[in-house]
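Running log. JK asked me to keep both predictions on one page so they can be read side by side. First protein, sequence followed by its tokens:
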Amino acid sequence: GFFLHAEDELLSLESSFWQYQPSSNRLITNTVLAGVGISQPMGVRSSLNMMFLWTLNNAFEDLAFNLYGNPEIRFAVIF
């Protein structure tokens, strides 16, 4: 069936990788993702899920790079 999904993701990234010059060597970011999904049962206790998630806040818009494309498409096998 169909379902709604939301998540709040807090990441600590190495600053040197992103070509960003902060005051420390770590870059902390918080991203809120929300979207819809579909779940296909594969047995009594398992399913195959596909989700389409969009970024609700863009903390890096002024830094000219994004962590996620919109929509982000995810596949998952749930046991």
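And the second, directly underneath as requested:
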Amino acid sequence: MRNLPDSRPERPLPVDLTPPTACRVPPIDPFEAADPGTSAFRVERYPFYLLNRLVGRYNGIIEARLRTIDLDIPSWRVLMILGEASPRGTRAIADAAVINLSTMTRIVQRMVGAGLVTAASSPEDARITLVDLTPVGQARLAEARRVTAPIFGHLVQGFAADEFEQLIAMLGRMHANLAPLS
């Protein structure tokens, strides 16, 4: 007579899948992992690495789109800043664009040559050069907005309005936190 396997299901033995204490990995402290001064530092947790990576990708995409309308990123920044309020002083534009003043002066001179902006001494203070959009500059700004707006749409895809507001607020807080050090 053959031995047939028992058809009753076998009761599983209780198994403790918790690793022994020596093998447990403690949870990562997010501040420690982001702090370059600790041995727990992980570059993928470092906010400035992530911001630079994001800006690098964004600028690469934007640059390609702007090239189609014969515009570069520095000129686009100037147009966008002047699109908010124009005229503005060269220093104010440089500060808003996060570009040093001597570089901004060269950018503005190039844009004057291209007919995008005018530059003239301020009537109140001759030391200040006021930069203003020309009609050609206004038209180029409209084109730039048209070609870059879809990129912004992709960038914020899936974010709720309150999440976006939180992001803006947190970035502002980080910027303010650095003010005493600069």
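Observation for JK regarding the second prediction: The longest helix spans residues 47-67.
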